[in-house]
Design brief:
CATH topology: Kinesin
Number of strands: 17
Keywords: ATP-binding, Microtubule, Motor protein, Nucleotide-binding
Domain Kinesin motor: 1-316
Number of helices: 8
GO molecular function: ATP binding; microtubule binding; microtubule motor activity
Largest sheet: 10 strands, mixed
Order of helices and strands: EEEEEHEHHEEEEEHEEEHHHEHEE
CATH architecture: 3-Layer(aba) Sandwich
Protein name: Kinesin-like protein
InterPro entries: Kinesin-like_fam (IPR027640), Kinesin_motor_CS (IPR019821), Kinesin_motor_dom (IPR001752), Kinesin_motor_dom_sf (IPR036961), P-loop_NTPase (IPR027417)
Helix content: 25-40%
Length: 316
């Protein structure tokens, strides 16, 4: 499924505030699900599973995705990711505003829900061990953000990490630093610690139980900006970085359509700037999101086995 979120106009948006380029239709069929962009007098209409207007709160957005978070705890594979151009509100949607309780994003709210559910299940006799590892992928190089030996530029990590996939479709990264955690507050501290050297951050929570025979995966992802190379104005090292980002994003549609052959919950939150100066990039984002929304994914299947519970929660 695909959600669309339009951020409010900001004071530094270079645009004529009298000019409006984004509209929300109010017909019965599209109320709360439609969005229209006006470009050079031509109207472009899109319909998604949910459209959040600029006035929508962080809580309103999380209410719509909280059931997917619970699905991961119930043994399903879940992926929630934010897509859109730089400055369209992806990180605000995923992380929120540090220190502002009401402005918390999907990631801290999801962590709170996970630990609240953990406490409730522990009261029913469940036993949990939860671990955290954090990584970023920068210029196609994996970096361990919790390693105490990491120094120098991103390309000069002390270890070469590899990505592996097991027969059950689970993904593992070799030689990551792993930290035991007992609360969402401890995870928040580790997020802040990792953010000191970030370009992108990834959080993995591993939850183990020797008695319950279920597996769940929740991936929470803040992607890099999707603007085209000509729009970015990048040169030198920044050009290399932008090219690597665009190469990854260009493969995203292939990944989405490959998921159609599997049984997973996938939610894309496309973020859009309402500034008239961003109309071209907004239109590109919405067109891509519309293609993703047309992808039919099979009926999700609960992951059960006779092995220990291994629920992994990722943020990148």
């Amino acid at each position: 499924r695909v959600f669309c979120r339009v951020r409010p106009l900001l004071s530094d948006d270079v645009a004529d505030t009298e000019t409006k380029s984004v509209y929300f239709p109010t017909t019965t069929e599209t109320l709360g699900r439609g969005i229209e962009l006006l470009q050079h007098g031509q109207k472009h209409s899109f319909t998604f599973d949910k459209v959040f207007v600029p006035e929508s709160s962080q809580e309103e957005v999380f209410v719509e995705v909280s059931q997917l978070v619970q699905s991961a705890l119930d043994g399903y594979k879940v992926c929630i990711f934010a897509y859109g151009q730089t400055g369209s509100g992806k990180t605000h949607t995923m992380m929120g505003t540090p220190g502002n309780y009401d402005e918390k994003g999907l990631i801290p709210r999801s962590l709170e829900q996970i630990f609240e559910s953990k406490q409730m299940l522990q009261n029913q006799g469940w036993k949990y061990e939860m671990q955290v590892s954090m990584l970023e992928i920068y210029n196609e190089t994996i970096r361990d953000l919790l390693s105490t030996n990491r120094s120098g530029p991103p390309e000069c990590g002390s270890k070469q990490h590899t990505i592996k996939h097991d027969a059950n479709g689970n993904t593992h990264v070799s030689d990551l630093t792993i930290v035991d955690v007992r609360s969402s507050r401890e995870v928040s501290y580790l997020l802040s610690r990792a953010a000191q050297s970030r370009y992108r951050r990834t959080l993995n929570l591993n939850d183990h139980s020797m008695d319950q025979q279920v597996q769940g995966v929740l991936n929470l992802i803040d992607l890099a900006g999707s603007e085209r190379l000509s729009k970015s104005g990048s040169t030198g090292d920044r050009l290399k970085e932008t090219q690597a980002i665009n190469k990854s994003l260009s493969s995203l549609s292939d990944v989405i359509f490959a998921l159609a052959k599997k049984e997973e919950h996938t939610l894309m939150v496309v973020n859009v700037s309402p500034a008239p100066s961003s109309i071209n990039e907004s239109l590109c984002s919405l067109r891509f999101a519309a293609r993703v929304n047309a992808c039919e994914i099979g009926t999700p299947r609960r992951q059960t086995s006779a092995r220990q519970l291994d629920a992994r929660f990722s943020y990148g």
